[in-house]
Amino acid sequence: MNDHIVGGKWPLQETIPTGQSGNRRVEHHNLRLRARGRREMLVAWLLTAPALILLVALFFLPVVGVFTIAVTDWQFGASALSFVGLANFREVLADDGFHASLMNTVVYVLTVLPGTVGLGLAIALVIESSKSFRSFYRAIHFLPYMATLAAMAIAWEALLHPTIGLVNQTLVGLGWPTANWLRDERTVLPVLAIIGIWQNLGFAMVLFLAGLKSIPQDLYDAADLDGADIWFDRLRIVTMPLLGPVFMFVFIVVALNAFESFDAVQILTQGGPGHASEMLLFTIYRESFEFFRTGYGASVAVVFLLVVVLLTMIQASAMDRRVHYQ
Predict the structure, then answer these.
(1) Confidence of residue 143 (pLDDT cuts 50, 70, 90)
(2) Which one of 196, 204, 304, 325 is CB 3.0 to 4.6 Å from 112, fit for a cystine?
């Protein structure tokens, strides 16, 4: 044991400074660490500052501005305004037009969401099981999501024309009754929902394809050994549980896209006939920029924001309980 002692001291003892000299060295070392920490913090703030500035300028300031306008009677272009408190919100909640717009939006979302997710998953499963032309099928189904809906709406308007449109011409050839699809209160909202499903279908399909690619083949082989050799059993036991995170993401994104539907309404129906196809974003636009009731439009925007946040939180919470990450 004495062989490990140098000069009557253990080696560890030699590395520990003692006395005033040791204290100065420790204090100097701590000062250097604090200075380096301040430099690193400064660099971190400098690197994140552009993103923070953009976040404040493009998100927080507009939100604060909308909340501020919502409690005033300001009209677009006016030079003066007055504080009215919650009067705009009381008017919104008592407005039958707003009730119709809110109900149309909810019905639209509840139609587009399951239609997009269900068809997107089905097409992804078919493409994944296909032996050839996978890239072609992916591109064909993804094109509507990449296309500008303003341009595609014109094509839909031509297809749905009451006299020369391909849809009615086909129905006439089959001997079935036709309809004025975009001017009938009974058909206009379902038609807009079909257009919404068509637009978002490619996005959902691509995400589901990515999720299917990430599932190891070994799990399917193990399921076969356990007797799950039917495609439905493989889907229920292996595919669906492992697609849980993808399902949650697709549900939330498609729901938000559906809530933000505006282009098709603006181009094809203008909210008509009556209020049959008017949705919340179109109501905000019309009240703010056509009727110049900016305070009222801002209050509708606040209610819209609260509804979207609430439904998104409920949906995320419900989906999170069913997500499998392992």
Answers:
(1) confident
(2) 196
The torsion angles phi and psi of 95, rounded to 5 degrees, stand at: -85, 120
Residues β-bridged to residue 83: 72
What digits encode the pLDDT tens for the residues 91-136? 999 999 999 999 999 999 999 999 999 999 999 988 888 777 677 7
Percent pLDDT > 70 in the chain is 89
* Region for 159 from its dihedrals, namely left if φ exceeds 0, alpha if ψ lies in -120 to 50, beta otherwise: alpha
Q: Which helix (H) or strand (E) holds 177?
A: none
* Angle, vertex CA 295, rays to CA 291 and CA 300, nearest 5: 85
Q: Exposed, middle or buried, 15 (CB in 10 Å: 0-12/13-18/19+)?
A: exposed
**pLDDT confidence of 1, banded at 50, 70, 90?**
very low
77 backbone dihedrals φ, ψ, rounded to 5°: 95, -10
Q: Which residue has the tokens 């039958």?
A: 96
CATH code matching the domain that covers 87-320, chosen among 1.20.120.450, 1.10.3720.10, 1.10.10.10, 3.10.20.90: 1.10.3720.10
Beta bridge partners, 72, equal 83
Task: Report the distance separating Cα 93 and Cα 109, nearest Å.
Answer: 21
Separation between Cα atoms, residue 300 and residue 288, nearest integer Å: 10
**314: its two tokens:** 């409920």
* Residue environment code for 110-120, b if the CB has 16+ CB neighbours within 10 A, otherwise e: ebbbebbbebb
Cβ(232)–Cβ(263) under 8 Å? no
Q: Do the Cβ atoms of 263 and 61 come closer than 8 Å?
A: no
pTM of the model: 0.80
Q: Rounded to the nearest 10 degrees, how much is the dihedral formed by the CA atoms of 244, 250, 251, 256?
A: 150
